[in-house]
């Protein structure tokens, strides 16, 4: 049987105590880090809720008019740069959306999305578009 010297025993106790203290310090440090992360998570959530109230959503407003007993809404419209008398428009007539059509205000015809040229009928939405954007 081997007998240990008191100095070795004392060194062993000191080393074990230091290791235990270092482990406790690491655990405390780890707990502090997790506590700060939880606080940051809640702060980020509150900040996100506050900032989401300031986000401005785009407004999509259609120009709607009653024209000869029909409700005509202009959903999108573009004027031709080359032919200023032509308008490319997507309309809604009485709540039914129409495909893109080209309205020619000079010849009073509309060109449908498939390329068909159709003359304006009586009280056609093309008259509404041309009169609405007519220069005074």
Could you describe the 3D structure shown?
- The model has no long low-confidence stretch (mean pLDDT 82).
- The longest helix is centred in the first third of the chain and has 47 residues.
- Helices cover 40% and strands 26% of the residues.
- The chain has two domains: 56 residues; 70 residues, no CATH class.
- The chain contains two helices and seven strands.
- With 136 residues, it is of the alpha+beta class.
Topology:
Blueprint: H1 6-52, E1 63-67, E2 70-79, E3 86-93, E4 96-97, E5 101-104, E6 109-111, E7 117-119, H2 125-132
Antiparallel strand pairs: 1-2, 2-3, 3-4, 3-5, 5-6, 6-7
Descriptors:
136 residues; 2 domains; seven-stranded antiparallel beta sheet; 40% helix
In short:
The chain has helices at 6-52, 125-132, and strands at 63-67, 70-79, 86-93, 96-97, 101-104, 109-111, 117-119. The chain contains 2 helices and 7 strands.
Largest sheet: 7 strands, antiparallel
Average of per-residue pLDDT values: 82
Beta strands, count: 7
Q: Whole-number radius of gyration?
A: 39 Å
Order of helices and strands: HEEEEEEEH
- What form results from the Cα inertia axes? rod-shaped
What class, by secondary structure content?
Answer: alpha+beta
What's the tally of helices? 2
User: Portion of residues in helices?
Assistant: 40-55%
Identify low-pLDDT runs.
none
């Amino acid at each position: 049987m081997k007998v240990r010297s008191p100095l070795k025993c004392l060194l062993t106790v000191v080393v074990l105590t230091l290791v235990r203290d270092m482990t406790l310090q690491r655990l405390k440090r780890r707990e502090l880090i997790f506590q700060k992360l939880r606080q940051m998570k809640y702060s980020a959530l509150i900040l996100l809720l506050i900032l989401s109230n300031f986000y401005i959503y785009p407004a999509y407003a259609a120009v709607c008019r009653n024209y000869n007993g029909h409700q005509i809404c202009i959903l999108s419209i573009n004027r031709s740069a080359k032919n200023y008398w032509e308008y490319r428009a997507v309309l809604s007539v009485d709540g039914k959306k129409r495909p893109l059509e080209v309205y020619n205000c000079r010849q009073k015809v509309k060109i449908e999305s498939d390329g068909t040229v159709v003359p304006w009928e009586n009280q056609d939405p093309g008259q509404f578009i041309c009169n609405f954007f007519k220069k005074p």
